[in-house]
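FAQ: What does a ligand-bound record look like?

Like this one, built around flavin mononucleotide:
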Amino acid sequence: MQSVKSAPNVSFFTPKQPILGKFVKYLEDSELTSTERTPPLLFTPLKIRSLTIPNRITVSPMCTYSSIDSYPTPFHTVHYGSLSMRGPGLLITECASVCENGKVTCNDLGLWNDSLAKEHYSKIVEFAHSQNCNIGVQLGQFHNKDIVPPIESWSKEQIIDTIKEWGQVCKRATDMAQYDFIEIQASHGHIIDQFISPLWNHRTDEYNGELQDRTRFLFQLVDEIRNNIPKEVPLFIRLPDCDKSEKEGSLTQKDTIKICVELAKHGVDVVDFVCVNPGKLNLRSHKPRLEFLQDLKQILKSKDLSLVVGSPSKISTAKEAEALLQSGLEDIILIGSEFLRNPVLVTEFAYQLGVKITQPVQYSWGFYPSEKYLETSKSAPK
Ligand SMILES: Cc1cc2nc3c(=O)[nH]c(=O)nc-3n(C[C@H](O)[C@H](O)[C@H](O)COP(=O)(O)O)c2cc1C
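The answer part, i.e. the structure of the complex:
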């Protein structure tokens, strides 16, 4: 009797998978011609530090409000498990708080102690790794007005302690929870966002003033994180492109580009923009999303710097995603709500582009019945 080979380095048996969501060939090509044509950009691998992603499709972070006492539950196992075995190039979990008071709701995840980190590994990361999925955690610290004083009343010691706490949480996220990368949540009114925005920051010391002062907290934080995580682990950040305000002195897209130039120098690898929709507002020197991304790419290039860039934009078809990559303005495609409607979106996009991709071995029979898909050995089953 043949025995199915097990996925390595996990505590349970599950069949060994190929790299999922990887380009195999165009559906109309024969095996002979399959190596002669380059894949669409959406299914072209990309290397970010030590990670090689098989395709550019990224699950955007989405809160599930399903934690008990900040711990992941079976819901997280099933939710992230079902996404991870469907081959996204990158999977970013919902925002997990770096401290007890930094959650948005009581049912958010937390990652501020070893016990939480171990549960992140056993309930979320271990299964994702058994499927060869690159999984990262979004870490945030929300400003809860009712329980945390405004940042202008924080002492310098508090700021330094907060920065150190972030470093320790990131260390735990990579060492103990074993996430493959980290995304810093610096948008949506989180603490970092508040330091950067002149509309929120009312401090009277070196953490407020010009852009370089308002970003002091951010860069001290980024440096602390980089010093606490392995060199090969990619660091992502989620930033707004500007303040959604007509007020004089609010954060502009030009400011954000300057921040990105410095982030690239401080060891950040990926910038994930939440671009504001100005609606009827007349925002100062505001440009449409793609023009903003074009300015950013040009300035980075002129300074010989590079950042992987993405920005969720209600993508629901492979054609839209491929066009964005072809424009050169985005390198990864972040998708949120469409993954909630269709967890098998990577396969759907592959079909839309006429591409065959690798599938989980348990399901390959359904996709490619004539092929050998399980790795077996002659040893007796356990
Ligand atoms: C249910 C839900 C929860 C979300 N939670 C988060 C979150 O935890 N962190 C975050 O940065 N963005 C969060 N977002 C925003 C998404 O990451 C994404 O930016 C947004 O949905 C736009 O992408 P889409 O048009 O593809 O949905 C959430 C969105 C949804 C729909």
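Follow-up question: can I read anything off the structure? Yes, for example: The pocket of flavin mononucleotide is lined by residues 60-63, 94-95, 138, 185, 188, 238, 274, 312, 314-315, 335-338 (CB under 6 Å).
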